[in-house]
Design brief:
By secondary structure, the protein is an alpha+beta fold. It is built from 2 helices and 8 strands. Strands 1-2-8-7-6-5-4-3 form an 8-stranded antiparallel β-sheet, covered by helices on one side. Strand 7 and strand 8 form a beta hairpin. The longest helix has 27 residues. The two termini are 19 Å apart.
């Protein structure tokens, strides 16, 4: 695993993957497949047809968190996407970045940030779970991308 940072309502982890940027991007951009490789997702359902990209939305269900609708708010095809969801008093932003490393490897950085008047309270109540989920997602992504699937 790479580095970890947590500062109040922001958490970030980086993990190095033995797989190409293209392989990792294919997995990350196929959000509806996430429940198949990470236990932190119960279901992910796209809310519109067409290619996944800027302004796409998805209903995400996670253990202990219920249902949230996420909207893609940042998009760099093949490199990065970020999406946000809004709840009472808090906006949560999740960023997914991929960079190429030597030898056909990749570094994936996952970041979650909560803002808004209740972000501090939500972070106190759910910060530990959020960190565990992001850590699990990073480890699960690495394992899935390195499993020898086509394109790995």
């Amino acid at each position: 695993m790479g580095g970890r940072k947590f500062g109040g309502v922001r958490y970030e982890i980086a993990v190095d993957v033995d797989g190409s940027v293209e392989r990792v991007w294919d997995v990350l951009a196929d959000v509806e497949s996430w429940p198949g490789w990470t236990p932190t997702m119960t279901s992910v359902r796209r809310l519109e047809d067409g290619a996944f990209g800027l302004d796409s939305t998805a209903e995400v269900r996670q253990p202990k968190l219920g249902r949230n609708v996420w909207r893609v708010s940042g998009w760099e095809p093949g490199r990065r996407f970020e999406w946000t969801t809004n709840g009472p008093g808090v906006t949560t932003r999740a960023d997914h970045r991929i960079e190429a490393l030597d030898g056909g490897r990749s570094r994936v950085t996952l970041e979650v940030e909560m803002t808004g008047p209740l972000a501090g309270v939500v972070s106190l109540l759910a910060g530990g779970m959020t960190r565990r989920f992001v850590d699990t997602e990073a480890a699960s992504l690495k394992k899935h991308c390195e499993a020898g699937s086509p394109g790995a």
